[in-house]
Every structure is written in structure tokens, then in C-alpha cells.
Amino acid sequence: MWWIVLRKIKGFDTNVILVMALAVFAIGPLFQPGFFWGAHDARHSVYFLYEFDRSIQEGILYPRWSPDIAFGYGYPLFNIYSPLAFYLAEVLHLLGLDLVSAIKMVFALGFVLSGLTMYLFARRLMGRWAGLVAGLVYVYVPYHIGDVYVRGAFAESVALIFFPLILWSFYETVENPHPAAMLASGLSYAGLAFSHNGLLLLFSPFLGVYLVFLVLTRAREDVRGKATSSGERWILAAKATARRSWMPLTGLLLGLGLSAIFWLPMAVEFKFVRLDQWLGGYYDYRDDFVYFFQFFSPFWGHGLSRPGPSDELPFQIGAVPLVLSILSLAALARIRDQMRRRMVVFFQGSLVMIVFLMLSASASFWELLPIVIFAQFPWRLLALVMPCVALLSGSVMVVKEGDNERASAVAAWALVGLVIFGSYAYLSPQIIEPAEGPVSLEAMMRFMQSSDQMTGSVAWTHEVPRWSPFAEYVINEGQPPDLKVDLASLPRPRRRLAVDLQHSSTISHELWVHAEEEGRIIFNIFYYPGWRAYVLTGLDGEIDRELEVLPHGSLGRVSVWVPVGEYYLLLRFENTAVRAVGEWLSLLSLSAVFAVLGWQEYRRSRIEG
After folding, report:
1. Looking at residue 291, what DSSP letter applies?
2. DSSP code string of 204-262
3. Number of domains the chain contains
């Protein structure tokens, strides 16, 4: 009954509901009891959210420091790692879901919303039935399924929502320049920046090529037949290019401004963490190129990528998307609209180039752009293959004038069935119990110890810890210690330099200090820019003066040289100058968004009035 009602609503596209409903097979495993704890990043996702929630519960609206990572020494996780997925999960957690259920629900939303955004973009380019096929290919392409159920790539699964939105909105800035398109392009690009650093690095060059293609294609059409000489043609072409370029560039700048609160500190302060933990060993990109046969192999596994061809991680493009992408070559003959044809050819060429960049033959290209190595794995470019094969698969269903609508619908449904059937066998996550026990701080410590994961260190750490007094206390007592001062480092007898904790939080520690002589207080906290220490006028009092904070020893822990006297000492993690600049840029950009929306509403009211 409800379906008939929706179809009768004027202008309502029932395929919107279909795309979301047909994603049910992809999200079905998420509603089973238990969790796929064996997925590569499953534990990271849950415990990152655990840390994120601690800060939010304390009223820190934009967390940067995670106090329990690295066995309690702390780590600037969300200063260098995109936080959007965790904001979404935190909202669900605050609404009542437990941490694991919140993670699973965001994974489900990622599947549904990514299919919807691809449908809307493909529909705009090629029509409803092409959009239906493209949207569902985007949901069921093997890399997408593996991203969730094999890798447990939480942040990356959210980032996939934004690829179609970015391609669509920037397409509109060139094709139909309008403030709404500019705002949409800025917001969608910012969404990607907030979702995943690595995919932002990989997608941005692709977006640059895409924009050059769109602008030059449209500029060429603008000047066709208008010039009488080659000189005039060049002038007109330059003007048309500038006219077509300003709005997408404005959208790009808006996106960078909106997300500056994240990417600006990340770009400047990433050097203050141990880069070898992000780029060396398992994360060395030179060991993670794909062998050509692996794109076609039906192999499905839940292991890791390895040097050589014996990977335990699947890299297949997918039989159905691959065949449909090949058939898009024949579909070109059916596409009458020149811009549609060129878009299909662009994504065909992009698919070939992206596949090449995942092969070892492209190693020299990776060396030319060293910043891209922060994406870690060349096979991560399979994420860019997704929109290409989705749109090419959809192009097979482009309907030309005179085609039978019912026949088109039947053909689209047949392809949708093939797409789902082709990937259905891969929807089999490994549901297991966590070896370290239910989610808790104790379990986090056990996980870090057993797996050597989540032990990120800062640039001043020369000896990566394998355990800590904090972790020992948590395991023995079932709760974290109140005091993070290294008491063993204080001079003897203790009365010469005595401390007593007054209160602490994830980013601050206030102590009463009695010092008969100058001395050093060492905190079991990794040093990182932003830690500052003050002498207060009293308990929770005003700042009297600032003390110098320095890294100490092979662990690079926070140390404060304290003066003689009795006073209260505050150690606090604060914004640096670059973080403050990033926040202000984001606030100004958000103000610009509201200003444009307000101006558009004012103009509309004037016209209607």
C-alpha cells in the first residue's frame, strides 16, 4: 500500500527508496548478534570511539588528545585523524546505543547513504535506471564490502558517502553555476576531509583532473563557432575557462576553509608524531602494490596484505562491475548527449589510470608525489575505482528517446539482481568474541599489549613503550590511577618535593605542590605541542605565571621544572597557534555559508514579494 502511495506523489522518485531498501543485504550482517572483532581495524574503531566519548562527556566539543592510548601515555589521535565517523557514532551512543552498536549503525548508514548519493549523481547524468544500477554497484562492489567486513575501516566507510556528492556538486558548479552548487561542493569536500585523511589525499588529485576536464570541455563548447581568428579563439577560450573555473575553485576553497579546524593542524603538527609508525613496516607503500591478476581473482579472505602475490586480503574489482564497465564501451553508441558521452569516456580513462597506479610499474609516479605515501597502501585506490565502475555500470542502462520504459525497468532489475547475487557470498563477516574481554579500559590495555596496536608515539619518544605503570594499575585495580605524576622520579626524601592531586580530566591535571628546592615533576604523559603548565594563585585560581614544559627521557614524557614554594600547579593541553587559526578559518567559512544562504533567501523573498 505504502509503495502505491509514494508512486502517486507528484515528482517523488521511488527509486530513492529502492536503492536504500536494496542495500538491506549489505547491512544485514550488521544486525546479527555480536561483532566482527577479527576485522583488521574493528578494535581500533571501538576503542577510538571509547576515547572520543570520554572527551565529549567532559564537554570537549572538538577532542584532539586521547589520554589512554599508548598504555595511558596519551596520543594526539584526533589532531591527526579525521573525526567525522566518530561524531556520528557518538550521537548514536548519546541516544542510548552502546559503543559497538553505534559503530555498527554507522557502518550501516555508510552503506545506505553511499548508495543513495551515487544514485542521485548517476541519475543526474544518465537517468533513473542508470542511477539505480550505479547506486547498487557502489554499495555491493567487493572493495566496499571488504572495507567494512574484512578491514573494519570505520572512517573510510563514511568517507565513501562523499565521493559521489563531490563529483555531483562540482559538476553542477561548472554545468549550472549557482550559489547552491558552490555551497554543496564546499560542504561535500569538507565532509571528505573530516572523514578520512588518506582518501582525501588520494581523491584530491583525481578531483583536480576531473575539474580540469569539466572546465575545459565546457569552455570549448562556449567558444565553438564564435571566433574568427586563432588569436580571438585563444582570448575567448581564456575568458570562458576563467568564467567556468571561478565557482568550482570557490567551492574548493570553501571546503578547505570549513575543514581547516582539522587539516591545518594535522598538516603542520603531523611531524610531531613518530612517522615511522604510520609509514614504515606494514605501512610501507612499496610492499602493497597489486598484482594484475588480483583484480580479477575471485579470492576472498580476511587476512592482511603481504609483500608478493600471496595476499590474504581480496583486491578484486568484482566480476559483475567489471563486465558492465567493459560493456560501457558498447553503450557509448547509445548515448546521444555529447557531455554524457564525454563523462563516460572520462571515467573509462580514469579506471584504466587508477588500475595502473596500483601496479608496481607505477612506483615512479608515487615517488614523484611523496605526500601521497601518507595514504599508506596503493591498493587503497580501489576506493577510487568504486565510483568509476559504478558510473560505467550505470551507463549500460542509459535510456534513449523511444526506448520502452517497461523493458528498461526489467533490464535494470535484472542487472540489480546480478550485482547483488555477484557479491552476496562475500557478506560473511567473522563474528567472534573479543579475546581481551568486553569493552573496557582494561580490555584496551590488553589489546594494545597483545597486538602492539594503538601504541602510537610522539617524535620525542625514542623507546616505544610495551607496557606502563598506568596499564599495570588499570589491570590490577580495574580503574585508572588518579595521579599521572611519576612519583618514583621525585627527589628523596619526599618532603623536598611533594605533590597531591586536586582534580584531573582528559586534558588537565591540577596539583598542590610543596617544593623546598627547585625540581622537576615528570608526568606519565607523552609530550606534544599544546601541553602548558601554570602556577595558580589558589585552588582553581587565576594564572600567576607560566612554567616551561619540556620532553624528558627516552619516552619523551612531559616534564615541568618547578620553583620553590607552596602553590597549585595546572598542567593543561591547549590550542597551539595553528589550531586556533584552523578553528577561526572554519568559523569564518561556516559564517560565509550562512551568509550566502541568507542572501539567497532574501533575494527569493524579494522576487516572490
Report:
1. P
2. HHHHHHHHHHHHHHHHHHHHTTT-SSHHHHHHHHHHHHHHHHHHHHHHHHHHHHHTHHH
3. 2
Q: Which domain-ending residue is among 382, 406, 424?
A: 424
**Counting Cβ atoms within 10 Å, is residue 257 exposed (0-12), middle (13-18) or buried (19+)?**
buried
Based on the fold, state whether residues 160 and 262 are members of the same structural domain.
yes
The pLDDT score that the predictor gives to residue 3 is 42
The domain boundary, picked from 424, 451, 471, lies at 424
Q: How confident is the model at residue 1 (pLDDT cuts 50, 70, 90)?
A: very low
Domain assignment of residue 355, given as a range: 2-31+81-278+311-424
Whether 304 contacts 326, CB under 8 Å: no
- Whether the CA torsion 298, 303, 305, 310 is positive or negative: it is negative
Cell of 60: 570537549
CATH number for position 494: 2.60.40
Q: 252 with 342, same domain?
A: yes
Q: Is the residue at 523 inside a domain? A: yes
Reported pTM? 0.93
The CB-based long-range contact list for 537-540 (8 Å cut-off, 24+ gap) reads 538/568, 539/502, 539/510, 539/512, 539/568, 540/510, 540/568
On whether residue 470 sits in a domain, the answer given is no
Tell whether omega for the bond before 493 is within 30 degrees of 0, i.e. cis: yes
**Quick one: 184 and 324 in the same domain?**
yes
Residue 221 confidence (pLDDT): 78
Distance CA 565, CA 559 (A): 18
pLDDT band at 275 (very low <50, low <70, confident <90, very high): confident
Residue 492: the pLDDT is: 79
Q: Is residue 593 part of a domain?
A: no
The pLDDT tens digits of the residues spanning 548-564 come to: 999 999 999 999 999 99
**Mean pLDDT of the region 557-581:** 96
224 burial type by CB count under 10 A (0-12 exposed, 13-18 middle, 19+ buried): exposed
User: How confident is the model over 305-335, as pLDDT tens digits?
Assistant: 778 788 788 999 999 999 999 999 988 888 8
- Is residue 42 a part of any domain in this protein? no
Whether residue 609 has pLDDT greater than 70: no
Assess contact for 58 and 509: CB atoms under 8 A.
Answer: no
